[in-house]
Design goal:
Blueprint (H helix, E strand, L loop, with lengths): L3 E4 L2 E4 L4 E7 L8 E7 L6 E6 L6 E3 L7 E6 L4 E6 L8 E8 L16 E2 L3 E6 L1
Parallel strand pairs: 2-11
Antiparallel strand pairs: 1-3, 3-8, 4-5, 4-9, 5-6, 7-8, 9-10, 9-11
Length: 127
């Protein structure tokens, strides 16, 4: 069983930064592919960033390219989402997700690709 615990959300003004963390249990953390998703009120859950477990391939939604960065720290069993130059439209609940079955260079796309999910953390960006 893998448990994911997110932290780092909060209220920030437009132009500010936050770093989300997702701490994971599990013996093979280094072989998990990762995704960060978000869901705004009334909206669908969308993928904003993802990373193959090799760390060599990443994905970013067009809306966050150049502003968000996904990274992982195997020693801490933690994956991060650094969010800079935040905009009010980034307001959402953010979820991390782990795919424990993917190959080293596969970047999971669909929600169904992911095996485990965190509980979500609220990010609110004020204008």
């Amino acid at each position: 069983q893998v448990q994911l615990v997110e932290s780092g959300g909060g209220l920030v003004q437009a132009g500010g930064s936050l770093r989300l963390s997702c701490a994971a249990s599990g013996r093979t953390f280094s072989e998990y592919a990762w995704g960060w998703f978000r869901q705004a009120p009334g909206g669908e859950r969308e993928r904003v960033a993802a990373m193959a477990w090799s760390g060599t391939r990443t994905y970013y939604a067009d809306s966050v390219k150049g502003r968000f960065t996904i990274s992982g720290d195997n020693a801490k069993n933690t994956v991060y989402l650094q969010m800079n130059n935040l905009k009010p439209e980034d307001t959402a609940v953010y979820y991390c997700a782990a795919d424990i079955h993917s190959s080293a260079y596969f970047v999971p796309a669909a929600m169904a690709d992911y095996d485990y999910w965190g509980q979500g953390t609220q990010v609110t960006v004020s204008a």
